[in-house]
């Protein structure tokens, strides 16, 4: 096996690869791993674009611009399949923006307060691990501690709040390290976890979404499983979702993250984890040998291609199971 690692971004995209001969050279095939937790989505392949995303959120729409993308991806309330957990969680239930410490303030216990300069106050409170986990999406919760009793205060989290003279929260900070410790977690090597939220200003009226630079495209029209992308077509890999095989269909005339060069169909019955991986690897290896060089030469690394295939749980979900083969082009 040849290891293939994403050069940028924490917690993301470690894959294992294999080699196969083609025209006297040795192309490297990298398979994606199914458990890859990220804060702002999961992507197929390593990529070289910055591991960052810009977000613009209002009550009915979430717009996301990832890495070096020249467009905003608009998610309306009717989001495409697979995006709900990561995209809809950003709408928030107790604050305008989800996934922050403001979502868990109502669960504070054992609150202590003291006066601060300028007429404000500071608060220190304890949160149960159960309440604290509400700020995380499901896939991240699954990498943190498990088997939590909602009524038990074991593994408490300390929350510090700063409030101005008008009673508005201006800063929140929590040490979340107590949520770590699962031996089977992808975060098992992480030794500390903190969250800090700073509010820099307050509006007298509901905010108006500012004009966004760059064009906006509808996620409903462009986000889809990679298995539904035609061979030869191009995609961007970061959708903001946490479903590994979701991509954004884009024109090959514009900069793009990857180009699909083949799909290989499986049978109706799942053959087992190891056999599925072997079949996907062999089928994509053969497809790479016969694929158009105008497609495969886009690879950011010479003679390297990637492939992915459905898990047993998603084997017949949404259509016939296929292995998807592609090159990462930036």
Rg (C-alpha, Å): 22 Å
Helix content: 10-25%
The largest sheet has its strands arranged as 1-2-3-17-18-16-14-15-13
Shape: elongated
Q: pLDDT below 50 for ≥5 consecutive residues: which ranges?
A: 1-26, 33-42
Please tell me the overall pLDDT.
77
- What letter string, H or E per element, gives the SSE order? EEEEEEHEEHHEEEEHEEEEHHEE
What is the end-to-end distance?
A: 23 Å
Structural class computed from helices and strand pairing: mainly beta
- Determine the strand fraction and express it as a percent band: 25-35%
Outline the biggest β-sheet: 9 strands, mixed
Number of helices: 6
* Topology, number of strands: 18
Mind explaining what this structure looks like?
This protein is mainly beta. It has helices spanning 84-87, 129-132, 138-141, 219-222, 273-290, 293-296, and strands at 2-5, 14-19, 28-31, 53-57, 61-66, 71-76, 109-115, 121-127, 157-163, 169-175, 194-198, 215-218, 223-225, 234-236, 246-250, 258-265, 304-308, 322-328. A 9-stranded mixed beta sheet has the order 1-2-3-17-18-16-14-15-13. It has a 5-stranded antiparallel beta sheet with strand order 7-8-9-10-11. Strands 4-5-6-12 form a 4-stranded mixed beta sheet. A hairpin with a 5-residue loop joins strand 7 (109-115) and strand 8 (121-127). It is elongated, with a radius of gyration of 22 Å. 37% of the residues are buried. Mean pLDDT is 77; it is low at 1-26 and 33-42.
């Amino acid at each position: 096996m040849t290891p293939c690692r994403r050069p940028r971004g924490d917690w993301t995209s470690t894959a294992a690869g294999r080699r196969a001969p083609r025209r006297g050279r040795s192309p490297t095939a990298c398979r994606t791993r199914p458990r890859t937790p990220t804060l702002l989505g999961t992507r197929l392949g390593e990529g070289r674009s910055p591991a960052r995303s810009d977000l613009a959120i209002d009550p009915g729409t979430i717009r996301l611009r990832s890495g070096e993308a020249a467009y905003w991806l608009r998610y309306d309330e009717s989001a495409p399949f697979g995006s709900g957990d990561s995209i809809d969680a950003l709408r928030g239930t107790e604050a305008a923006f989800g996934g922050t410490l403001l979502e868990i303030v109502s669960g504070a216990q054992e609150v202590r307060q003291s006066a601060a300069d300028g007429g404000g106050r500071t608060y220190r409170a304890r949160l149960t691990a159960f309440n604290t986990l509400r700020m995380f999406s499901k896939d991240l919760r699954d990498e943190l501690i498990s088997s939590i009793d909602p009524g038990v205060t074991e593994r408490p989290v300390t929350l510090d709040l700063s409030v101005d003279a008008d009673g508005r929260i201006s800063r929140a900070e929590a040490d979340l390290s107590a949520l770590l410790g699962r031996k089977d977690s992808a975060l098992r090597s992480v030794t500390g976890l903190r969250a800090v939220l700073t509010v820099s200003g307050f509006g007298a009226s509901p905010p108006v979404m500012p004009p966004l630079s760059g064009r906006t495209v509808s996620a409903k029209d462009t986000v889809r499983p990679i298995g539904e992308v035609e061979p030869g077509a191009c995609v961007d890999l970061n959708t903001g979702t946490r479903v590994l095989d979701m991509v954004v269909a884009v024109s090959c005339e514009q900069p793009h993250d990857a180009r699909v060069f083949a799909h290989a169909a499986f049978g109706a019955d799942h053959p087992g984890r190891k056999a599925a991986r072997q079949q996907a690897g062999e089928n994509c290896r053969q497809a790479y040998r016969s694929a158009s060089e105008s497609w495969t030469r886009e690879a950011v690394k010479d003679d390297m291609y990637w492939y992915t295939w459905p898990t047993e749980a998603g084997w017949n979900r949404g259509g016939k199971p296929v292995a998807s083969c592609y090159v990462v082009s930036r």
